[in-house]
Each structure stands twice: as structure tokens, then as C-alpha cells.
Design brief:
The protein has 350 residues and is of the alpha/beta class. It has 14 helices and 13 strands. The protein has helices at residues 45-53, 59-83, 113-120, 130-134, 144-150, 183-191, 202-205, 211-218, 233-239, 241-245, 251-267, 284-292, 303-322, 330-333, and strands spanning 2-9, 16-27, 30-42, 90-93, 96-101, 106-110, 124-126, 156-160, 163-170, 173-181, 274-277, 298-299, 343-345. The strands form 3 sheets. It has a 6-stranded mixed beta sheet. A 5-stranded mixed beta sheet has the order 10-9-8-11-12, with helices on both faces. Strand 9 and strand 10 form a beta hairpin. The protein starts with a strand and ends in a 5-residue tail after the last strand.
């Protein structure tokens, strides 16, 4: 079987919308993939502010933004496919996470798939987290099914986005979890110097590590909990930002210390060859720190894989959904059972 899918990904860092045209083929129960065309459409400040307002808005505004962002995603998808003369079986969208509190039994991603379908003019698959949360799971991470089937040549898959998350096989079960916040915190600190991010870690490289702050971060209770777990922006606001604000240090020193903290936490979980993707793979200083703390092979792949692995895997989740196969693993999320997650809106030409 052969599938052509457009994967859409928009992360917590609000860098922009990733669009990846992906092709999948299964032969003898082995999946192969390619990403012939991909691009990122950066969000301007106005759109970022509109999305951020959704977290603290009246219900009417949240509902408005759900449809607004869905139509925006749909227009971008339609234009991307048209400009590149591409045809797809369907679009598969992650959506934009606004609330993620599985411990309270809910998660919310906006970017309404019906609104998206109306603009993209093709079938759309989305809302991949809700069923798992309803089954008592974390609704995250969702990428491990793709790691298992598409990136089987690596012992570990490590993604460095707003958060770092890791995925690996353990006694024929896939295990995965969030390790710690990464770009969500680094970008926040860089913004204090008027930068949108710490380019290749050059600001952190100029700083000095504060051992007291480092110890405070490293002893957070989250890092002692070994059950399935995921992180959200709410946790960062409650646990990380208050700690950082209590230390009157230069921003460069905060960046250096937090980068060290990330490397320390990640190194604890790496015990084999590790594929590193996501925006954090470009942070040379962070990767140097990580390599200092582990003897394992840390692999930085090609730019397309770094940038679009998540969009690729959300396209793959859509394939699994349309095949009515498991795409969400209870061994990863802690749900009562594996599930075939995702809602589908069909586009019919009239």
C-alpha cells in the first residue's frame, strides 16, 4: 500500500507551521517513508499573540480561535499543495495545544479540523490526543509509534522541541516520556535580551553556571517520578519560571545554567545510539554539553529530518488511523489500552 499525506505540525514554541508532504509504503510489514517536499511558515507576532490570548480568554474567543486557526492551517495546506503541484490522500494535523492537563482528564488542541477541511478541500485527520486522555492516558507522547516503525535503526529517538522527549524499546514494549523543558525555557530567557531564541547556544556559551540554581532545578520532584509522564506549559509556568526569577543572575548565566540542566537530565536516559531531532538539534552548545555527559553515539541527521520529523510522524499517525490500526501506545501514555486515535472529516466534491 502507498500513501501520500500532508502532515501539519505546530508546537508549543510557536515558531510556525510545519508542512511536510510525505510518502509512505508498506511491504512485508516494513514501513518506508520519504519527505519529498516540506517547508515552515513562520508565525508573525500578531498571530502568536492571538494564539497566546487563547490561554486566558473568554470561551467565545477560544471557540473563535479554534475555527480561525483551522481555516489558517487549511489555507496554508491548500496553497502549499497547489504551489507544488501535489495531490494527497488526506491532510493530518496535530493542531495547536492550548491546554494539556491529563491529570485532570482533559487536553485541548485548536485548529478545528472541519474548518481546516473547508479550506484545504481534502479529507483531514486530527484530534489525536483526546481518546487516549479519555482512556486515562497522558495523551502524549504520540511520536513513539513512528519512532518504532519508521526509525527502527536507532536505539533511542530524542526530540528537542519545547520539551525534550525520548523513545525506545524495552523488552518488546515501546517506552517514551518527556524528560524536561527545553526551547520553551531557553526562548523565554533569550527574549529578555530581545532575541527570539539563543542561536546555536551562543548566548549560553558566554555565561557561567550557577551551581545553586543548577541543583535547585535538578532536584525538582518531577525528575524523581518514574511513571509515564508528560509535561505542559502550565507545569513550566508553575515550576521553572518562578525558580529562575528568584536568581538575580545575568541572562547569559541563566541560559548557561539551564542548558547544563537540560544536558544533565537528558544524559541520564541515554543508553544507546540516539537520533536527535527538533529545533534543539541546532543548539551546538547544548549538543556539546550532552556529548560531554554520555559515551553513547549522538546522531544529528539531515536538516529535513531535524525540522520535519514530527510533521512526518503526525502524517503517519493519520495513515494508521485511516487503516484502523493502533497509533497510540498505552505502554507510552499509561492509558488503559492501546487505541486508534484521531477524528476524520471527509471532503466531498459536490
Amino acid at each position: 500500500m502507498f500513501y501520500k499525506v500532508l502532515g501539519l505540525m505546530s508546537g508549543t514554541s510557536l515558531d510556525g507551521l510545519d508542512l511536510a508532504y510525505c510518502e509512505f509504503e508498506i511491504k512485508d510489514d516494513v514501513w518506508q517513508y520519504s519527505i519529498p517536499k516540506a517547508m515552515t511558515i513562520p508565525y508573525n507576532n500578531e498571530l502568536k499573540e492571538k494564539i497566546l490570548l487563547s490561554e486566558h480568554s473568554a470561551p467565545e474567543y477560544l471557540s473563535y480561535m479554534d475555527f480561525y486557526l483551522g481555516k489558517y492551517f487549511g489555507k496554508q495546506a491548500y496553497n502549499f499543495l497547489k504551489d507544488n503541484n501535489l495531490q494527497v490522500d488526506f491532510v493530518s494535523s496535530h493542531g495547536q495545544t492550548i491546554f494539556h492537563q491529563p491529570d485532570k482528564g482533559f487536553t485541548t488542541q485548536i485548529g478545528n479540523i472541519s474548518a481546516l477541511c473547508s479550506e484545504a478541500k481534502t479529507t483531514v485527520v486530527g484530534d489525536f490526543r483526546s481518546l487516549d486522555v479519555a482512556l486515562g492516558g497522558q495523551g502524549a507522547p504520540l511520536v513513539p509509534i513512528g519512532d518504532r516503525l519508521l526509525f527502527r535503526d536507532y536505539d533511542y529517538c530524542l526530540n528537542l522541541g519545547g520539551f525534550s522527549n525520548i523513545s525506545y524499546e524495552d523488552k518488546f514494549k515501546r517506552k517514551a516520556y518527556d524528560i524536561c523543558p527545553v526551547n520553551m525555557v531557553l526562548n523565554y530567557l533569550a527574549s529578555m535580551l530581545g532575541k527570539s531564541f539563543d542561536d546555536r547556544g551562543m548566548l549560553a556559551r558566554k555565561g557561567r553556571i550557577d551551581e545553586t540554581l543548577l541543583n535547585t532545578l535538578n532536584t525538582l520532584p518531577y525528575y524523581k517520578d518514574n511513571v509515564q509522564k508528560s509535561l505542559g506549559k502550565e507545569w513550566v509556568k508553575q515550576n521553572i519560571f518562578p525558580i529562575l526569577s528568584n536568581f538575580p543572575l545575568r541572562v547569559e548565566d541563566l541560559l548557561a545554567t539551564y542548558t547544563e540542566h537540560i544536558a544533565v537530565q537528558m544524559a541520564k536516559h541515554i543508553k544507546g545510539s540516539t537520533l536527535v531531532t527538533g529545533g534543539g538539534a541546532y543548539n551546538d552548545f547544548l549538543i556539546e554539553k550532552l556529548r560531554e555527559k554520555t559515551l553513547q553515539n549522538i546522531i544529528i541527521p539531515d536538516k529535513t529530518t531535524i525540522d520535519f520529523k514530527e510533521a512526518l510522524i503526525f502524517a503517519f499517525l493519520g495513515v494508521k488511523r485511516m487503516r484502523k490500526e493502533v497509533n497510540c501506545l498505552a505502554s507510552v501514555t499509561g492509558a488503559k489500552q492501546d487505541s486508534c486515535s484521531g477524528a476524520v472529516v471527509y471532503w466531498n466534491e459536490i
